[in-house]
Design goal:
The structure is a homodimer.
Chain A lengths: L1 E3 L20 H12 L13 E5 L2 E11 L11 H18 L3 E11 L7 H15 L3 E9 L4 E9 L15 E5 L4 H10 L6 H8 L5 H9 L4 E4 L4 H12 L2 E5 L12 H6 L6 E5 L4 H12 L3 E8 L3 E6 L2 E5 L7
Parallel strand pairs in A: 4-5, 9-12
Antiparallel strand pairs in A: 2-3, 3-6, 4-6, 7-10, 7-11, 8-10, 9-11, 12-13
């Protein structure tokens, strides 16, 4: 269950705006209104995936809607990259609970103005993203529409218990995979009509769902996890809220993508699809090196879970911002 | 897997147009281009559902995209009816293979102009349609968009082998549930700015997924099945193509909804969500009465499967139209 409120700028990440937090303002009203109507029929609504049991098998299911002019503009991305990105956004929800992807369906709204092979190229990108994580493309729906609509639906299974947002304990350390800010740096350049840095554009066009990384962390004691889709701070807030705790982030520790202007950009960059994980305090430092060796990707401790609520940002130990007042940090 | 080509009129059913057949023209090119890119990774692409195995359990999965101005116009339907309809369109794909619905996810694109409770009302309609067939609402995605996007994703399980489109044999009789043409009569009135007949509007706003009916027919020997989403003739063509046979339909036998102008309207009325089923020739006549008694709904023999291909329409034994030339029958 994800909520984006991009208003009129793509990706929910207006260059000057603060990260949009789930649970705040109008978005929460919509969601509350929706789920209150469902009574007891809804399940696992707080997590990235619905986790359900069918015929004795536990499944993770998630859908992720990508809309032209809301999430991207035509011309920004080749159709193959668009397909890869849409599929990865949904697959990343499976990574967040340490599920194993099995299959993907794609519902497409396609404009008749598109070249004949456009949909084929898009599905080729979907197929590549699926193959990268061992999943199959199972089918979908195609409807004509003037603007492009892509809904990616993914289904995964579990080889062990899922890792949820709610499992963090006070004293756990928060760690993040990869380096943050590249996706947003590319988006800002695209919105500004500039040519993005090549490595930043790679983060925008070819993000990776951290499936194997999530299972590695689960097998070594991860207590709570979420994927960085809304931005490090916003997603830390979701994890903290679900766990009934506060998240404290040390901004000087945030691993920056080379194209990120500063830690504020890195902390608010959405659609990174890295993992934010809560690990027992004594365990986290011992995992950093083996993780980097296994995946050629950094795992960086960026903060700690404490009693309280919301997110606090520190700089070398001094509090510089708290929940709801991030726009100026 | 469904394909709609409504061009600029809602529902793929322009009042004067012929039914749109899957496998003809531009739509087929799109689909062929899409699936050709997927190599061996796609599965069961010809049927209404993807039928897949996860963890030893066989699942039916389908997605159905409903788009404002393509499938409906704002103001035609209350949000609850829109939710019911979108959910039922997807649930009907599960009926087509005689699966048992387990859960539904809804991806929503919502316009900020909508009243605060609009999404809640819509999801209430989704929840009612799910509850009607014993399914749960599992979650979804919400994104702001200027026009309404609803993708309904359904997952079902099997208590027995699925009934596919491909199982018909020469000599099987074709039967249809319910009475056809009401959905199209309502649509034509809505497009023409007239007030639809109440019972026709009920067919448009509150269609039913024939879940129990499909399982009843499966348990009694149904060989092939499809739901009437594109129209009786178009869907008969899909079933015939999958089975490698021709379908012959006797138009005087088509059961008409009271609001249907004639058999041509009934035969091309899409989104009816009734079942078209191929039954062994000696069996079909014996099921008509027990079916009607069980469900208070008619089961009507409308034609026969023969060697050949495409669809032939007869009137009292005389051929009046053949595949590709339905627009004047």
């Amino acid at each position: 269950m994800t909520v984006n409120d991009p208003s009129n700028t793509p990706s929910g990440m207006s260059p000057s705006g603060a990260p949009t937090a789930l649970g705040s303002g109008a978005e929460f009203d919509i969601i509350r209104s929706i789920w209150s109507r469902l009574g007891a029929r809804g399940a696992n609504l707080g997590d990235d995936c619905a986790i359900v049991e069918v015929g004795g098998v536990r499944l993770a299911i998630s859908s992720d809607l990508t809309l032209e002019d809301t999430h991207f503009r035509r011309g920004w991305l080749a159709p193959g990259a668009l397909g890869w990105r849409a599929a990865t956004a949904a697959l990343s929800d499976l990574a967040a609970v340490a599920a194993t992807p099995k299959g993907i369906l794609i519902s497409l709204g396609l404009s008749p103005e598109l070249p004949a092979d456009w949909a084929g190229e898009l599905m080729s990108g979907v197929g590549e993203a699926a193959a990268e994580v061992g999943a199959m493309v199972w089918g979908g729906d195609v409807v004509r529409n003037d603007r492009i609509v892509i809904d990616a639906i993914v289904i995964g299974a579990f080889e062990a218990d899922p890792v949820l947002r709610a499992g963090a304990r006070a004293g756990d350390l928060l760690a993040v995979t990869g380096r943050l800010g590249g996706a947003r740096a590319a988006l800002e350049d695209l919105l500004g009509g500039r040519s993005p840095d090549v490595t930043a554009m790679e983060r925008f066009t070819r993000p990776r769902a951290r499936i194997a990384h999530a299972q590695w962390l689960r097998d070594r004691g991860a207590r709570a996890m979420i994927d960085v889709s809304d931005g490090l701070v916003a997603d830390a807030e979701h994890l903290a809220a679900a766990s009934g705790l506060a998240a404290v982030i040390d901004r000087e520790l945030i691993p920056l993508h080379p194209a990120a202007a500063d830690s504020a950009m890195a902390a608010s960059s959405g659609e990174e699809y890295e993992l934010l994980v809560a690990l027992p305090g004594d365990l986290a430092p011992t995992l950093v090196e083996p993780f980097a060796e296994s995946f050629a990707l950094p795992l960086t401790v960026v903060g700690v879970m404490e009693a309280g609520q919301g997110v606090t940002i520190r700089d070398h130990g001094h509090v510089v911002a708290e929940s709801g007042r991030f726009s100026h940090f």
